[in-house]
Model the fold of this input.
Amino acid sequence: MPSLSAVDRAGVRVLGLFEFVGALAAFGARAGVEAFRLALRAPARSRVMSISSATRSAPLILTAGLAIGVVLSMHTRASLERFRRGGADPGRPRDRPDSRDRAR
Done:
């Protein structure tokens, strides 16, 4: 198999770059067309969805949000209390001197 000259190797790289840029442009164009196509279908989609389905799921969504909020607040409180006590070593009492607290 003959080896390629420097010009041929550069040409292959440039053609690969052009191929990549072209594929990226085609993807962007398809994404733009689909975005407008989905926006035009929104009124039809809103007619299909009824308000009754949203009202039936609202209590479940509210309950799940409340539970997640309670768990996050409990976790945050525990973390803040641990930070106030001394940071990285929560088992060390604050009134006992540490090697970092000794005079030099």
Remarks:
- The chain has a mean pLDDT of 78.
- Residues 26 and 32 are 10 Å apart (CA to CA).
- The radius of gyration is 31 Å.
- Residues 6-40 form the longest helix (35 residues).
